Amino acid sequence: MIESQKVRIDKYLWAVRIYKTRTLAAEACNGGKVKLNNESIKPSKNVEAGDLISLHKDMVHRKFKVLKILEKRLGAALINEYLEDLTDPSEIEKSKNIKQSAFYRQKGLGRPTKRERRLIDKLKNQ
């Protein structure tokens, strides 16, 4: 566990397990889904302790505070030492509700049928 003063945002998001790969983290930064201290950033922007990260992932707005800098990926149990979750509890509930709704399809079920697609379109337009 090497700790330094600064690390790239894409590497940090990968190390604290917010994104599964660095490539996904970099794409989120380039797509404007990640903000550092309320500013849109590029994946090469450095993160420091005390910074606030806000991101939009899975139709939910999440907020985190950087406690310590981390370069290498750790086990999920140790992440709480490096990152504080400031996400509003209503957003977390929203995430759970979305996964239970008709909009969410579990992985491996394939494409929706014509009937399912019409139902999804009908729900979206309400």
Looking at this protein, list some descriptive labels.
126 residues, alpha+beta, Structural Genomics Hypothetical 15.5 Kd Protein In mrcA-pckA Intergenic Region, Chain A, 2 domains, five-stranded antiparallel beta sheet, two-stranded antiparallel sheet, 4 helices, 31% helix
Strand tally: 7
- Assigned CATH class of the largest domain: Alpha Beta
Write the CATH architecture name of the largest domain. Roll
Which regions contain 5 or more consecutive residues with pLDDT less than 50?
Answer: none
- Within CATH, the superfamily of the largest domain carries the name RNA-binding S4 domain
Q: Provide the CATH topology of the largest domain.
A: Structural Genomics Hypothetical 15.5 Kd Protein In mrcA-pckA Intergenic Region, Chain A
Helix percent reads: 25-40%
- % residues in beta strands: 15-25%
What does this structure look like?
It is a single chain. This protein is an alpha+beta fold. The protein folds into two domains: 1-87, Roll (Structural Genomics Hypothetical 15.5 Kd Protein In mrcA-pckA Intergenic Region, Chain A), CATH 3.10.290.10; 88-126, no CATH class. The protein is 31% helix and 20% strand. It has four helices and seven strands, in the order E-H-H-E-E-E-E-E-E-H-H. It has helices at residues 9-15, 22-30, 89-100, 114-124; strands at residues 7-8, 34-36, 39-40, 46-47, 52-57, 60-66, 83-85. The strands form two sheets. Strands 3-2-5-6-7 form a five-stranded antiparallel beta sheet. Strands 1-4 form a two-stranded antiparallel sheet. Strand 5 and strand 6 (60-66) form a beta hairpin. Helix 1 packs across helix 2. The protein is elongated. The relative contact order is 0.15.
